[in-house]
Automatic annotation (TrEMBL):
Compartments where located: Cell membrane
Any one GO BP annotation for this protein: proteolysis
Descriptive protein name: Exosortase A
GO molecular function, one term: peptidase activity
Upper classification of the organism: Bacteria, Pseudomonadati, Pseudomonadota, Alphaproteobacteria, Sphingomonadales
Keywords for this protein: Cell membrane, Hydrolase, Membrane, Protease, Transmembrane, Transmembrane helix
Statement: the UniProt record of this protein carries the keyword Electron transport: no
Biological source species: Parasphingorhabdus halotolerans
Keyword Cell membrane: yes
Occurrences of domain Methanolan biosynthesis EpsI (ranges): 318-504
InterPro entries: EpsH-like, Exo/Archaeosortase_dom, Exosortase, Exosortase-1, Methanolan_biosynth_EpsI
Transmembrane segments: 25-42, 54-71, 83-102, 136-154, 166-185, 197-217, 224-244, 264-285, 313-333
Listed EC numbers: 3.4.22.-
Length: 516
């Protein structure tokens, strides 16, 4: 048989050969993905529970079917590409494993869940190769939207929405006064609460904008402009929504405005914004409906250095990288530090402990603490009251973090709401919270981890990370000093005087943790 006939026969059998290779590599990918999910089932489960339970992330439930659809869009062209092992993909798995390890040590669920998604991405890149990965580059990285994110934006979005509302109220000639995220008008007192921050719609619009940018545009300039519109329009729309609610309440009643807000703005207004964004972008779509998303033959013609690893060795190395941080954290989890069996509120010179009787019930939230104390002190000279709260942890783990969502100066499920950040002394953070009434309260928070006293949540996470990875005392202590405004006197002055008389916070925290 001559060479021409051999080449013709090979070309005729090429699709069958590629199909056989695809089956082998997909089988390995399924095995690797199943093992990763089995090892990190807790993070996968927590992530799915977040999609289902928290309305901000309900849109994530649609991401999985969207990913399937994006792959199906490319399936015919992907069949023209031969999978291969690609060793550089292991680097992505390694980065993901390190990220997961840091998240596990610091108690940051976002880092763990991001690491999980990146491990799955890295498995696909390693076991399917650079050509297939190039064909799947958008679906692979669109999977980042499976990771819940954006809660950190809530205070910023609350503030922006409140300030925009004030601008619109000024234009409407409605007298108003703003105090943090609270707005007073002659007819009512309004709060730009977390649920009104617009974070839900913003996050969903970012995911939607990325999808439309890939499917409907080819020009990167047009994609970026559409993404900008998808991010700006929800923020602007939410400011109009908040203003509209206050405007309607001003001319009708607060109850009517609240009901109108939930029915009209909650369902129709943002749907209108979505349609508006699409209508603006529609004339600029530059991808035809029947146009291929990728060119399989062109991608398959690309040359990449072949890996020396066989498929079986590749999956062994991949799984070794994944399991190493898991085993390391399992060993570290066996370490613990002891705390006293009982603790008591300290005696403070010039102050007496009195019955705790706040104008509006307040209690900081520290789930999983070994000990929690809350007491009221009265200044013998001025008669002002200051509240002291102390929470002690022997160690931090999932569900028992001293810093995290829902933990801290107030319970987000209570009637207390963040109002504004306040100036704080070194080693602390300060904020003002407000309850119905309104009742305002200033709270200073101190955290003691290892040898560090800080008010920064980031610093707490970093110090916790260091202690868990390098060893050391695992105890963590939160000390909160607070005062509510009950008269014309400055509650911050009372707090500062109490702190001066209390003495070093780090010394108090160490005593509570049994380190002195």
């Amino acid at each position: 048989m001559n060479s021409a006939a051999v080449n013709t026969q090979f070309e005729a059998n090429a699709p069958d050969v590629r199909l056989s290779i695809w089956r082998e590599h997909l089988k390995l990918l399924v095995i690797a993905s199943a093992i990763i999910l089995a090892l990190l089932w807790r993070d996968a489960w927590d992530m799915m529970a977040t999609w289902w339970d928290i309305s901000t992330y309900n849109h994530c439930l649609l991401i999985v079917p969207i990913l399937y659809w994006l792959v199906q869009q490319r399936s015919d062209e992907l069949k023209k590409i031969a999978p291969q092992i690609w060793t550089p993909g292991l680097l992505w798995v390694g980065i993901a494993s390190i990220g997961w390890l840091l998240g596990e040590a610091a108690g940051v669920s976002f880092a763990r869940q991001l690491g999980l998604i990146m491990m799955l991405q890295g498995a696909a890149i390693t076991l399917l190769g650079p050509k297939v990965s190039r064909g799947l580059v958008f679906p692979l990285f669109y999977s980042f939207f499976l990771v819940p994110f954006g809660e950190e934006l809530v205070p910023f979005l609350q503030t922006i929405t409140a300030k925009m509302s004030m601008v619109f109220l000024d234009w409407a000639a409605i007298p108003a006064f703003i105090d943090g995220v609270f707005i007073s008008t002659p007819t009512g007192y309004f709060e730009v609460a977390e649920a009104c921050s617009g974070v839900k719609f913003l996050i969903a619009m970012i995911a939607y904008g990325a999808l439309v940018s890939n499917v409907c545009f080819q020009s990167w300039k047009r994609r970026l402009l559409f993404m900008l519109a998808a991010m700006v329009m929800p923020i602007l729309a939410n400011g109009i929504r908040a203003f509209g609610t206050i405007y309607i309440a001003h001319h009708t009643s607060t109850d009517f405005a609240s009901g109108f807000d939930h029915i009209f703005y909650g369902w129709f207004f943002f749907a209108f914004v979505l349609v508006l964004v699409m209508a603006i972008g529609w004339p600029f779509f530059d991808r035809k409906i029947d146009e291929k998303m990728i060119e399989g033959e062109a991608i398959n013609a690309l040359e990449f250095r072949k890996s020396k690893l066989t498929p079986k060795y590749a999956i062994v190395v991949l799984l070794a990288i994944v399991t190493t941080p898991f085993l390391w954290t399992s060993i570290l989890a066996s370490q613990s530090s002891q705390v006293p069996e009982n603790i008591a509120l300290p005696e403070v010179a010039g102050w007496e402990i009195v019955s705790y009787d706040p104008a509006f019930s307040w209690k900081p939230r520290f789930d999983g603490a070994n000990h929690s104390l809350l007491g009221r002190y009265r200044n013998a000279s001025t008669g002002q009251n200051v509240d002291l709260a102390i929470s002690v942890f022997d160690q931090q783990e999932d569900g028992r973090e001293i810093v995290g969502y829902g933990q801290g100066a107030f319970d987000p499920e209570s009637d207390w709401s963040w109002s504004r950040d306040l100036p704080a002394p070194v080693g602390a953070t300060a904020l003002q919270i407000t309850a119905p009434g309104p009742v305002t309260r200033d709270v200073l928070s101190f955290y003691r981890i290892g040898n560090k006293l800080t008010g920064s949540g980031t610093a707490v996470k970093l110090e916790t990370l260091k202690m868990k990875l390098l060893g050391g005392n695992q105890q963590a202590v939160a000390v909160l000093v607070s005062a509510e405004k009950t008269d014309d006197r400055d509650q911050r002055q009372a707090i500062d005087q109490f702190l001066s008389d209390l003495g070093p916070i780090d010394k108090l925290a160490d005593e509570m943790a049994g380190l002195r």
